[in-house]
Design a protein that fits this description.
The chain has 2 domains: about 240 residues, Glycoside hydrolase/deacetylase (TIM Barrel, Alpha-Beta Barrel), CATH 3.20.20; about 90 residues, Immunoglobulin-like, CATH 2.60.40. The protein is built from 9 helices and 19 strands. Strands 1, 4, 5, 6, 7 and 10 form a 6-stranded parallel β-sheet that branches. A 5-stranded mixed β-sheet has the order 12-19-18-14-15, with no helix packed on it. It has a 4-stranded antiparallel β-sheet with strand order 11-13-17-16, with no helix packed on it. β6, α6 and β7 form a beta-alpha-beta unit. α7 runs parallel beside α8. The N and C termini lie far apart (about 180 Å).
């Protein structure tokens, strides 16, 4: 009994004195954790001053997910984008149609020239620096929504293993005849075909009601009268995107301008809508830094075979050694470049600074870049090689008129050319033509009486 009582007294004394008082027992030092913003407030039911882990352990505990490694992509890769429309043998149309045999020949030529056909979404991922693409790449697109894209082009492209994009406009889908249906688009979507927007009415965005049939023109003009030009433009660029997304359950991130035409308002709406890319039909080599809303495509058609032949050289870049022959080629592609003034725009400053970003023309040979302006002739423009830009400030005030700017240069010894136009009317509109004055009758001289 006495022994048990002694043990109880010893246990009680240890509780008050601590283990550090016992000979041979070394107390571990307490490490004070540095509170993080998330740990400064005590958790419910915990003691405010308690420490449950060392600073190192807390750091591990609160460490967020590691940042993904930055993808290094080849920004020197080159891309050309082809634009097809109707593919069939007996269409009666030449402007927008190519035969089946011609289509197959051109698809084989792409491969023979060393191009790799990539999906549109890989192209956009490369532009976001998220994914690499082959140094010489091609994107295939088919415009409008012809049913031949489903019945003829798709089986051929599937057989060749080529991905492609359908740019469709809402007003044509499911209208019968040669138009594609919503069900056919859904089937293509489920098979992995990329479907993107070609506006609602497929009207000329610069001049509402032009470039369409009488029925569509009437619908467009009614839209303009009801909701104004801005409302019509929003339907063409923004509402059409939403309809495609809602009907097909897809993400639409690319637009094709009808006829390749655009203006400042269209570009602003493209940005507002959240498109990652907007395409013209002014074919060009597409570099990593090409303007996202002015991407040129080669519009292939039977009536203009040179367009496809030009696409195989991607003028200004991506040229195979065997293509670098002596023949000279020029291409009017500035409508898909950043220019000041913008292509087709009116200005009110009589002494403007005229600028262009020449990225779309590729690597230009030293000492070959020149500018001339219709009505003014050659001008002393400044070429900035580091930024690949050219600029000239007009010194003699312009007269009200339309002006075309030409840029000429050489790329790898081959002549290249680009141009765009603008107008200068101080009041924003051309002056009314003068009405010729009515001729004044001259009285006949009176005859003298004899």
């Amino acid at each position: 009994m006495t022994r048990k009582f002694a043990l109880l007294i010893l246990a009680a004394s240890l509780a008050f004195t601590g283990c550090d008082k016992i000979p041979g027992f070394k107390k571990k030092p307490v490490v004070q954790a540095t509170p993080t913003p998330a740990s400064t407030a005590s958790a419910p039911g915990s003691s405010a001053g308690s420490t449950s882990a060392s600073g190192t352990e807390l750091a591990k505990e609160h460490k967020g997910p590691s940042a993904p490694p930055v993808q290094v992509v080849d920004t020197h890769a080159s891309v050309m984008v082809l634009c097809f429309h109707n593919i069939e043998d007996k269409s009666g149309m030449k402007a927008l149609t190519i035969t089946v045999a011609e289509f197959e020949r051109e698809l084989n030529a792409i491969k023979d020239k060393g191009f790799t056909v990539i999906p549109m979404q890989d192209f956009l991922a490369w532009r976001r620096s998220e994914k690499n693409i082959p140094a010489k790449s091609c994107v295939i697109t088919i415009d409008d929504g012809w049913v031949s894209g489903y019945t003829i082009a798709w089986p051929i492209l599937k057989k060749m293993g080529y991905p492609f994009t359908m740019f469709v406009y809402i007003n044509y889908i499911g209208t019968g005849g040669k138009s594609i249906s919503w069900d056919q688009l859904a089937e293509m979507r489920d098979a992995g075909v990329d479907i993107q927007c070609h506006t609602y009415y497929h009207g000329n965005l610069r001049a509402p009601g032009t470039g369409v049939d009488a029925k569509t023109k009437a619908a467009i003009m009614k839209e303009v009268q009801t909701v104004g030009k801005d409302g019509y433009m929003r339907k063409e660029i923004i509402e059409s995107k939403k309809i495609l997304e809602d009907r097909l359950g897809i993400k639409v991130n690319a637009l094709a301008y009808p006829f390749g035409n655009y203006n400042a308002e269209a570009r602003a709406l493209v940005k507002e809508a959240g498109y990652e890319a907007a395409f013209t039909v002014y074919g060009q080599r597409l570099a990593h830094s090409a303007p996202f809303d002015l991407l040129g495509r080669y519009a292939v058609e039977t009536a203009k075979p040179a367009i496809f032949e030009n696409s195989l050289t991607m003028l200004g870049g991506g040229v195979s050694p065997e293509d670098n022959g002596p023949s000279a080629m020029s291409q009017l592609a500035a409508t898909s470049m950043i220019t000041e003034p913008p292509n087709g725009e009116n200005i009110t400053d009589p002494t403007p600074t005229i600028k262009a970003n020449l990225e779309a023309m590729g690597v230009l040979d030293d000492g070959t870049v020149a500018m001339r302006i219709g009505g003014l002739g050659p001008v002393q423009a400044k070429y900035d090689k580091a930024n690949n830009t050219i600029s000239y400030t007009v010194t003699t005030p312009l007269k009200p008129n339309s002006y075309r700017v030409f840029i000429t240069a050489k790329s790898n010894g081959r002549p290249v050319e680009t141009s765009w136009n603008f107008t200068f009317y101080p009041n924003g509109v051309p002056p009314a033509p003068e009405t010729p004055a009515a001729p004044v009758a001259t009285p006949e001289p009176k005859k003298k009486k004899k």
